[in-house]
Every structure is written in C-alpha cells, then in structure tokens.
Design a protein that fits this description.
alpha/beta, Protein-Tyrosine Phosphatase, Chain A, five-stranded mixed β-sheet, 38% helix, globular
Length: 112
C-alpha cells in the first residue's frame, strides 16, 4: 500500500482491502473515504466490505464515488462535508489515488 501525504490531515492511496485497515489504523488514520465506484473491475472489494471492516476497528468510512464524469460539483460538496464531519487524519482511496487527490484539491476554495 502506497500512502501519499497531500496535507497534514489528508493522504491518498490506491485501492485498499479490508486486510490493509490494520496498517491504516496503525498509521494513525481515523477515517477513510472511497472515491471509487463499486464494480469498476470484477475483483475489486466493495465499499460495504471495507466500511464494515473499518467501522469494526473504530474507523469512520464514507463513499463518494467519482466515475466516468470525473470530479463533479456534487462530489466536491460531499467531500467538503466529509472533511468537516469526519475525524482527521483521513485517507482517501480509489484505483490509483488520482481521483482522491483531485477531489481534495477541488475542495480548497470551499474550505478556506
């Protein structure tokens, strides 16, 4: 798992599995946000499987899927809400981390 720090309170990674959550929690993360729609590829873990495992470990989890349309205004609003409502530090993930990075960067003008 390749964790990339975007800010002091937000990092990104490619696709995670439930097995990665121990390391994510040990790294100090308090919440995870999935930006990958379910079913992009057949062997991808579902968000619900990640959420159930995360919550069992005391991590908050939220799904803000970003699909073929790219980063939408709705996704940006949902991400602002997640940043304001969920505990930090937060890990965003998708297939490669690119969508998680992009949506976070789009929130900058709304968070200041």
């Amino acid at each position: 798992m390749d964790l990339r720090e975007i800010s002091q309170t937000y990092s990104v990674a490619g696709q995670i599995s439930a097995d990665d959550l121990n390391a994510i929690k040990a790294a100090g993360f308090k919440s995870v946000v999935c930006h990958r729609p379910d079913g992009e590829v057949p062997d991808q873990p579902t968000f619900d499987s990640i959420k159930q495992a995360a919550e069992a470990m005391g991590l908050e989890a939220r799904h803000i899927p970003i699909g073929q349309m790219g980063v939408t205004a709705e996704a940006v609003r949902e991400m602002v809400d997640a940043i304001e409502e969920m505990p930090a530090p937060m890990l965003g993930y998708c297939r490669s981390g690119a969508r998680s990075t992009a949506v976070y960067q789009h929130t900058a003008h709304l968070r200041n």
